[in-house]
Write a structure and sequence with these properties.
6 helices, TIM Barrel, single chain, four-stranded parallel sheet
């Protein structure tokens, strides 16, 4: 059975590691906006870290911001878990293409956004 730990604050304490030690196989956490801090969390935690979406956003700024957050996979995250901010973005298809470009193809954020037609 897979256990998912949801972490809201990961900069102040090694909570990802604590969730792992309590049995979590995967950790869902918001990106800390601090590349080094997030890298430290992913390095310290044997469980897979998944980047959670931000709180609900304005659709015009939402898609690019989501993809920028998805770029955190370069800092050690195993993937992303995005929902309503993709579907309510007004351009879900382009947002998903851009996310795929960043997460799976390793494209730079600006390139993935441009290719997907997301501005």
């Amino acid at each position: 059975m897979t256990t998912l730990g949801i972490v809201k604050r990961c900069q102040e304490q090694p909570v990802g590691r604590i969730a792992f030690e309590h049995g979590a196989d995967m950790i869902k956490s918001r990106y800390t906006s601090d590349l080094r801090g997030f890298q430290r969390m992913t390095d310290d935690c044997p469980a897979s870290i998944l980047v959670a979406s931000s709180p609900r956003m304005d659709p015009l700024e939402g898609s690019p911001r989501l993809v920028r957050e998805a770029a955190s996979v370069i800092s050690g995250a195993a993937g992303v878990v995005f929902g309503r901010n993709v579907w309510q973005s007004g351009g879900a298809r382009g947002t998903v293409r851009a996310l795929r470009g960043v997460v799976h193809d390793g494209r730079p954020v600006t390139e993935a956004l441009a290719e997907a037609g997301v501005t």
